[in-house]
Amino acid sequence: MDAVTGEKVMKNVLVLGAGLVAGPLTKYLLDQPDFSVVVADVEAARAARLVAGRPRGQAEVLDIANREALAAAIGRADLVISMVPYTFHPVVAAIAVDQGKHMVTASYVSPAMRELDARAREKGVILLNELGLDPGIDHMEAMRIIREVHDAGGRVLGFTSYCGGLPAPEANTNPFGYKFSWSPRGVLLASKNSARFLKDGRVVSIPAAELFAQPGIISISGLGEFEGYPNRDSLSYLETYGIPEALSVLRGTLRYPGWCETLRKMVELGLLDDAPKNRSGSTFLGLMKELSQAAPGADARGAVAFRLGLEAGSAIIFRMDWLGLFEDRPLPAERGSALDNLAALMIEKLQYAAGERDMIVLQHQFLAQTASGRKERIVSTLIDYGVPGGDSSMSRTVGLPAAIGARLILEGKIRLTGVQVPVHPEIYGPILEELGTLGVRFEEKRRIL
Fold this sequence. Notes:
Elements: E1 11-16, H1 22-30, E2 35-41, H2 44-51, E3 57-61, H3 67-75, E4 79-82, H4 89-98, E5 102-105, H5 111-114, H6 117-123, E6 126-128, H7 137-151, E7 155-167, H8 184-190, E8 195-199, E9 202-206, E10 216-220, E11 224-230, H9 237-240, E12 248-255, H10 259-269, H11 284-292, H12 300-308, H13 315-323, H14 338-349, E13 358-369, E14 375-385, H15 393-410, E15 418-420, H16 425-437, E16 443-448
Parallel strand pairs: 1-2, 1-4, 2-3, 4-5, 5-6, 6-15, 7-12
Antiparallel strand pairs: 7-13, 8-9, 10-11, 11-12, 13-14, 14-16
Helix pairs in contact: 1-15, 7-16, 8-14, 11-12, 15-16
């Protein structure tokens, strides 16, 4: 309400990017009675689809590389939600801070973003990051339970978390056990990260080349067994989550069985090399011969199998063959990298068919010690499915937390400033509660050991 006129004041949100996860976010905000939303994207049609038929929604064409246009768009808003590639977030954030505007993202806090903390606090604005699924909902549920344990006088001795965006069981119809609900390049680049975690008080470091070497077997009640491999640097969460007493901390990624052995060999072969190279006139078959250093006239499958120490009839060679890597067809990115061409092939072959559902599986396991000294196992599991013909689970679980966070900021219910992630009760409490009303909720089980 306006303090003078008593009239409702419209809150203006700018959504940058109209990609795969922006639909539920935009819809949620437009369902709020006092919100107007501008969706800005380099592709006019993508932005227009998200606001079609919504009088308080507007689509704009915007190239975020145009700093002047970007600054003007941010200047017209009260808050900006950046859903563009993560490398642009610090640029958007710097402009937002200069103009005294709040910002929300679903991406990890980068060093460049962290550097804006003091300026944001001076301006009295919040740069709320990691407000998606992973990172995002995972932080919020972890902190809810950790705070509960600590408030009861207990300690968290161990924390393990795995998350995966996967085809629902009935949609798991290809040899990779995977279909893309977001950027294939992002999925593949994440496969090149090294990892660190804490196990029984000992730091374990996994170089990128060995990331998929020894996946854990993770059982999810009602769904069966999955592969789990570590994700980036888990040690930082001792501080982020406020659990310095923990002896084991691991955050990881879930996949259906077979993914890890295949990606490991793809990395070994060089298919995830992201250095651009001129392969004008080459084909996927030619690329595989090049990477395997096949002799002239040699069979590419046999050469790849030999280079990787595999049998020619192995499941890994079968998966590569099924994907089309041995086909004599032109490369879509002749001057791109091996990664560019692999990503193009994967997005072609690993797509959801009409009416198929995706699935989000997120599970936290805690080993807690109560105030009385007893040990307790706490397992909290989120299983969420996409809507056939509607929103994917990935788009809902990434987009909705960001949208809810934006609403809470503009309603004055989140008063923190500076660079933040959702580990504070005033952030995660109301967001988890609202997600529950939207059908995104965890099932918690406890067992005294």
